[in-house]
Every structure is written in structure tokens, then in C-alpha cells.
Amino acid sequence: MNIRRTSAVTAAVASVALVLTACGGTAEESEDGGINQDTAVTVAWEAPLNELNLSSTNGNATQNSVISYMLNSGFNYYDDQLELVQDESFGTYEKVSDDPLTVKYTVGDDTKWSDGTAFDATDVLLQWAATSATFNNVEPVTDENGEVTNQDAVDAGVFFDGTTPGPSLIDEIPTISDDGKSITFVYSKPFGDWELDFTNQFVPAHVVGQQSLELTDAQEAKDAVRDAILGSDYAKLSPIAKFWNSGFEFTSMPDDKSLTVSNGAYTLEEYVENEYLTLKKNPDFKGKNQGSVETITVRYIEDPMAQVQALQNGEVDLIGPQASADVRSALEALPEVSTNNSVEGTFEHVDLVFGNKGPFDPTNPVYGGDAEKAKKVRQAFLLTIPRQTIVDNLIVPLNPDAEVRSSQILIPGSPNYDKMVADNGSDFYPAAGDIEKAKALLAEAGVTTPINVRFAYNNENARRVNQVALITDSAAKAGFTIVDTGRPAAEWGTLLGTGQDQYDASLFGWQSTSTAVTESDANFRFAPERGLNNYGLYNNPAVDAALDKLQVSTDPEEQFQLQLEIEKQLWADGFGTTIFQFPAIQAWDEKLEGVEPITISPTIFYNFWNWKLGA
Asked: Which residues does the UniProt record annotate as the domain Solute-binding protein family (predicted)?
């Protein structure tokens, strides 16, 4: 899974998304699967959809965002140059004031959900209410086994589990026009990435109202949601929040089709768990980016070489497998196949857990309240990670120019990357690792070895299995014993997001979904609301303060200096370590025209509206 990094935008909301890699499967064999093959495109993808609410903790994953990208539209989207384009066929937005920052969104007359219900300001209002934490008056408390100990209080209170930087800067309840088409937000302070808020991560407010408030009529349900938010009706907001958090989770076609309502070019027609899903062109969609083929079927095939085989056999038309030397060689040998070799907007990294009483937690009783001891143990462990060996063995065969990534925020090759790496303190951790330095730090901390480190990762992902093997061997030399707590793809995302008591370190990828400078907010913030991607429970007030300043900064040099300040803290604290930028290999049948992958999510699914099947 590569998790999406979140910012004010789309889930992760401009987040970086998390996406772990899920298990693959093969669809049931039939002559044509019920699909008109003349107007159908089949795509192989590694991880199955598990939720259609991209802004919830569980839904914030690339495996969900790539499907939602074809199901739903929004106020803007990225072009192939990663420039933001307004989609005025969906609606318009404008900044009506700088002081205070005030933004008005107006929904187009033809914008509708696929069940015929109008998309309007209430749908945007719900997104704000759910991601701003404005109404949250309780939070789950878990015991050492990860069980919620205050469930009654959570059920009785209001707790939306989705937060993003932008919406959290809007303290005032927004105003809605009399016709229900426009909504105006007033920010409490400037926000440089305001244009990335409220874009295309909406869930249908009328469905939330119907499901949570036991109402039948769509308009009545939508009005009830609107009134509950505008009136701060906590009695109704409690069930609304509970459904918003998990009501759109499913791993096969739900019996209740209202959970699959969309507002974009396609609708979800069929979903067989861990095997495939099929999207059908939405005949009532009036937007700009119309579906160009009648159906798009996404087959879930986790094994990269199995994806190549499926392409060779004509079972799929387009693949984006995890890159490996074998995959590259196999694709180069296939006739009538187009390939693209590049890098993705995803980077591999190891994060440590700070709040589980484990070996890296300053409150671990073993350290007697000495946070410096815990920091030295964290630093020692990170020094054992053989980043250069991982890159040389696993990535260079795919990309001869691959290098160890040494920035938590900036992508290698970006304008300030070299400057960042020179000054951020990452040189404390040599790319080759330093076992002797690690041993010395453990001696200074006065801790007894071996130290058990529960290591979480997707154990169905071959590349990550290989990385963990290399880390295990290296860490043992300094006195760390890796306890394998890997999980299958279907369980891995839940473990990462809510099972911190069960692991001490994690290995996964963060994938950018936007170009927002505030993307990193979701990864490192602890207060006033913990960032959606801060799975390690990292807590540094200085980082939070710098993130606060970064949210309101519009000057590029000031933005970089704040990012540098954040990175210095992260590397000094032993937050975690970065390893490499993902190599990308995509391939498609030459008869499929218009494929144009981009580096950020949705990668191979970008510009699906231009896909055409040639002769």
C-alpha cells in the first residue's frame, strides 16, 4: 500500500496517500465477463478498493483514490504538467477576499449524483464538517490491545475521524446561498494551498442522512444533514459522524447500492472481492471529462509478473505493476506493447512509533522518564537500516540513476532538494548505515540488548519482504531483533492506522496526490489535531508550530525555510528514515490509445477520458 499524503485537498486531502499493496486475484473466467469487449478497457491493479470515502482514516489510500478518480468529479484536477485546472462543468470557485481569506464555491446546474439527486452546497458542507474537527467532542481511547475503552462515550458523542489542514483553518460555520448552490468559507488565517480544499473528495450527503438518520426521501435527508451542521445539532451529528467514518467501507458489491452513488463519468456496477470491479459509463453525466469507453474493469493482481502475463495473454489492456528487473525484462520482450519507465510520486520510508510504550517511546518505563535515552535508541535503530544496499539491490536494476532519498518532504530532482539534504541533518544517518555508531548510541543510552522491534509491513509485497530481510540482518549486528508483524494486504492498512500498539516500526510508501506545500502537514502534525498520516504518533510542538506557519506562508523562500526547519527536527528526533523514490514501469496494449501516466496519483488512470481502442 502506498499511503497518500494529505494536505488540504483530496484525501489525504491533498494528502500523500497511504497505499499498501493488497493481495491479487483472478476474475472468474467467462467468455466476455458480460462486457462488450469492443468498448471495454481492462486494467490490472495491485490493491483492491475498500472504501469510497477518501477522507476517512481507512479510506485514505491510493487503492481507493484511483477508483474514485473515475467515479467522481470535482472543482478542479491536474493536467499532464501537474498544473491545476478548474473544471467549470462541475462548478466554479473564487477567492472573494484576502483579509480574511474568503472563498466561494458554486455548483453547476447539471452536477448530479448518479441516483439523480442534485449535488449541491450541502455535500461540500459535509466535507468541511467531517474534516475540520469543528464538532468533535470526544476521541476514542484504546487499551494496550488496541480495543476502544470508551465506546459508549464515542457512540454518544461526535467524532469525525477525517482531518485536513485547510478545513481545520475554517472556524466559522460556512454560509449557504438561498438556492443551495453556493457555499462560502471564511478562513481564520491565510492558507497558501486554499485552492486544493474541497475539490473531489465528497461523499453524498443525502445518503449519509438516509443511512444515519433513518430517512427515506433524499432531499429530506440532505436537508437534515445541512440543518444539523448549520445548527450544531450534536444529537444528529453523532450518528452522522459514525456513518461518515465507516459507512462507505466495503470489499465487494454492497447490497445497498446507495453506498456506491457517484457524481462523475462512471458508476460502480460490479465488484467481486479481491478479484475485479467493473465501472460503467454514466449516461447522465454532463461534465467535461466524459468516459470514452463503455466499461472499465479493474482486475486485482498483486503479483507484478502475473500482471505482465495477463497483458501478454490479452486479459488486460493496461498495467502498472511494482517495478522489478524481471518485470522490465519481460515487458521489453513483449511485441505490440507500449511501455513507460519513469519515477512515481511515491517514496519508501520507515517510520517509528512514539506512543505505544515500545522501544522508541519516551514514556516507556524502561527509560525512567529520560526522553534522551529513547531518542538514542531510535537513532541507533535508524542507523542500522541499509538504505544504500536496498537501493543498489532492488532499485538500481530498474533505474540506473536511482539514489537514496534523504529528504522527508522534497522529491529528488526538485529545485531545493540538494539544498535541503545539505542542511537538514540527514547526514547523521549515512546511506550505508553505521553499525558501530548505532552500538555506541545504545551504550550511551545504557539499554540492554537485544531490543525487540515489532516490524509492520505488507508481507504479500515481494519487494518489501526483501527489504525487511535486509533490515533484519543489519539491525541484528547492532543488537536489534526484528519481530515480524507483517500482515497480508487486506489487513495491513487497518493495522497501520489503528494498531500502533502491535508494532514499533513500519515500512510503506507515501504517494503524493497534489503539489501542495502543506502535504507534509498530515504526516507530521500532532496538535491541535493529529495528522491523518501521523501513524507513529509523533509529537513535537516545534514541528507543529512550523507547520502552522507553513499553512499561511505564500513566499517560496519562506516556505522552504520552514520545510527545512521541520526536517531538521524530524531527523534529529529519529522520526524515521527515507529510502528511495519508487521506480515506475507501466505498459499497455498498443491498440489502447491515449494512455498518459503521471507521477502522482492516479498514475496510469490519468486522463481516462482520452482512452480509445484502436483497430
From this structure: 94-513
Nearest to 265 by CA among 15, 592, 610: 610
Cβ neighbours for 265, distance < 8 A, ≥ 6 positions apart: 70, 71, 73, 281, 282, 285, 287, 289, 290, 291, 608, 609
What is the CATH number that goes with domain 346-582? 3.10.105.10
Q: Is 5 helix (H, G, I), strand (E, B) or coil?
A: strand
Instruction: Please say if the pLDDT value at position 28 is more than 80.
Output: no
Nearest CA to 47 out of 347, 346, 490 is that of: 490
pLDDT of residue 547: 94
Among candidate residues 56, 75, 72, 48, the one with its CA nearest the CA of residue 17: 56
Q: Please write the tens of the pLDDT for every residue from 222-242.
A: 999 999 999 999 999 999 999
Give ranges for CATH 3.90.76.10 in the chain: 77-246
Instruction: Cell numbers for 293, please give them.
Output: 469507453
Q: According to CATH, where is 3.10.105.10 located in the chain?
A: 346-582
Paired strand residues for 277: 271, 298
Residues 6+ apart with CB under 8 A from 290: 265, 281, 609
Query: Phi and psi at residue 190, in whole multiples of 5°?
Result: -60, 155
Residue 280 exposure: Cα atoms within 13 Å on the Cβ side: 12
CA dist list (Å): 366 to 77, 203, 371, 446, 451: 50, 46, 11, 10, 12
Single-letter amino acid code for the residue at 211: Q
pLDDT surpassing 90 at residue 83: no
Q: 576, 536 in Cβ contact below 8 A? A: yes
Instruction: Cis check for the bond before 100: say yes or no (omega within 30 of 0).
Output: yes
H/E stretch holding 295: strand 295-300
Please return the burial class of 36, using the count of CB atoms within 10 Å of its CB with bins 0-12, 13-18 and 19+: exposed
Q: Point out which residues pair with 487 in neighbouring strands.
A: 458
CB 294, CB 36: distance < 8 Å: yes
For residues 578 and 406, give the distance between their C-alpha atoms in angstroms, rounded to a whole number: 6
- Cell matching residue 583: 521506480
By three-state DSSP, how is residue 105 classified? strand
pLDDT score for 145 = 64
**Block residue for cell numbers 521541520:** 566
Report field, pTM of the whole predicted structure over 0.90:
no
Question: Are the C-beta atoms of residues 236 and 224 closer than 8 Å to each other?
Answer: yes
Residues 6+ apart with CB under 8 A from 341: 328, 398, 399, 583, 584, 585
Helices (H), 231-320: 234-246, 304-312
Question: Would you state the pLDDT for residue 109?
Answer: 96
Residue type (1 letter), 91: G
What CATH number was assigned to the domain covering residues 77-246? 3.90.76.10
In three-state secondary structure terms, 305 is helix
Joined grid coordinates for residue 608: 481516462
Which contiguous run of DSSP H or E holds residue 475? Answer: helix 462-478
Question: CA quadruple 12, 17, 23, 25: dihedral positive or negative?
Answer: positive
pLDDT per position as a tens digit, 412-443: 888 899 999 999 999 999 999 999 999 999 99
CA distance 21 to 26: 16
Q: Based on DSSP, count helices (H) and strands (E) in the chain, helices before strands.
A: 18, 20
